[in-house]
Every structure is written in C-alpha cells, then in structure tokens.
Amino acid sequence: MRLKANATTEQLPPPVTTEEVGQAESILGFHLPPVLVRLYREAANGGFGPDYQLFPLLGEGRTAVNVYREERSTAESDNDVTHWPADVLPVLDWGCGMLAAVDCRSPEGAVLLFEPNGIDDEWHHAWYVDSESLAGWLETWLSGTGWYEEDADEGGEMRPWETGRQRLSEGS
C-alpha cells in the first residue's frame, strides 16, 4: 500500500500516531475499524488513494474528522432531515458532492458512496455500498479496477445501502 501511495504523490504526509488516532476517536465519539487505523498509522495521514486522494484524519484544513463533523452538524440543523448517519466517516471527496465513507460500525469497514445529486428528502436513496470492506476497496484501487477508473467495466451497478434508511432514522 505504501509503495503505491508513494508512487501517486511527490511527498506523503507522515502517518498519524497512536495518540492522534485516540484524539480522532475521542472527537468523533466512536472507534475506527482496525484496517482504517492501520492505513493512517502505517501508510500516511491521507494524501493518497483513488482520484482525489484520502482526507487526512486530523490536521489543518479539510480532514476526515472535520468533514464528518460538518456533515453531522448540517444533518442536525436541517429540520430533522438527516442525510448523514452517525459513525460513517467520510474519507474521500469524489467531487460533485459525492463522498466515499467508511461505516465504522462495520468490523470490516464497509465503504459507502454518498451520491446526493438529485435527492431532495429521501436521503437513504443517496447511499450505496461501494465495497463490503475497506481492504477490498483498497485492493480495487491497487489493481486499477475501481468504477472510477477510465477504462472500468461499466456493467456493474452499486447496490443501495440496505440499512441506510434505518441508520439515518437513528439520528445521533
């Protein structure tokens, strides 16, 4: 992973420390899946990955922790119309409002796609399962076979996140 990460950018930020992971989890109010922790602890604090690259976990500017807090804050202030479920950490911005996020309640760290374009109020329709696990999602990136690749097979469609409606109704 680190070799591919180094090959995609001139200089990676240093990995986060165990203390920084603890700080992020304290701010978020939930634990990160082990694979996500290893990624930030052993590869780098973001700055690599598919297309627009992973957010840093912590730090200045746009980070996974800050984006999560913004999305949850917006969700809570939107007249009780929740669009962002608790414990789903945004890790990458695909552009056009779309985000990749890790379901931190999933032991494997399922990767979800938030695609809000054209959604007005039934936010569960904006959520899809990109990969059942973060490890599988990363393998897809490493092999160059992700849906976002220029010559990707367009035959498969992502399936809706079936627990999305229930998770959104939980509020915080």
From TrEMBL:
Signal peptide positions (record): none
Pfam families hit by this protein: SMI1_KNR4
Lineage: Bacteria, Bacillati, Actinomycetota, Actinomycetes, Streptosporangiales
Residue ranges of every copy of the Knr4/Smi1-like domain listed in the record: 15-144
Stretches for region Disordered: 151-172
Record field: compositional bias (Basic and acidic residues): 156-172
Top-level taxon: Bacteria
The protein's name: SMI1/KNR4 family protein
Species: Nonomuraea maheshkhaliensis
Entry-linked InterPro entries: Knr4/Smi1-like_dom, Knr4/Smi1-like_sf
